[in-house]
Amino acid sequence: MKCPHCNHDDTKVVDSRETDGGRTIRRRRECEKCKGRFSTYEQVEILNLLVVKRNGDKEEYKKEKLEESLKRATNKRLTEVEVEQLVSDIESQINVCGKTEIATKEIGNIVLAKLKERDEVSYLRFASVFKSFGSGKRFIKELEQL
Question: By the 8 A CB rule, do 3 and 33 touch?
Fold first, then answer.
């Protein structure tokens, strides 16, 4: 790990602790050269997961796509940290499935469940796109179900 202060590539771990419910490890590091301290975070990365789209096409899972759709749905209603936590929760649930392929519908349902717990307005925003609301009546029906 290179030091962000002097770019020296010899650092040592001073302290490690779990965060985010054990899904992330925070490591406090110290540079051997300039003695500058900094933190790094280690998380599990979802690898080799294919997402099956509605039309049957398959593509590699991309965390950035999930983050972007959540940022659109939450649009300043949740902090960046809360959105990151939400992404982490969703990815953990996807990982628990242990599948090599997952349908966009399954991911969408997980997202809906997590958003429903956190913020109903964000839930409705996401649901309106995910469930393809064609009219205001459909939107009102979903609102009444909340």
Answer: yes
Burial of 141 (0-12, 13-18, 19+ CB in 10 A): exposed
Map out the domains of the chain as residue ranges.
11-43, 50-145
22 in Cβ contact with 12 (< 8 Å): no
Please list, in sequence order, all residues whose beta carbon lies within 8 angstroms of the beta carbon of residue 58, skipping any fewer than 6 positions away. 50, 51, 52, 101
Element (H, E) at 101: strand 101-103
Rg (CA), the chain: 19
Give pLDDT tens digits for 35-58.
999 999 887 776 688 999 999 999
Q: Give the Cα separation of 54 and 46 in Å (integer).
A: 21
* pLDDT one-digit tens code per residue, 65-103: 999 999 999 998 999 989 988 998 999 888 887 788 999
Which region, left, alpha or beta, applies to residue 43 given φ > 0 means left and ψ of -120 to 50 means alpha?
Answer: beta
Contact yes or no for 83/71 (Cβ under 8 A): yes
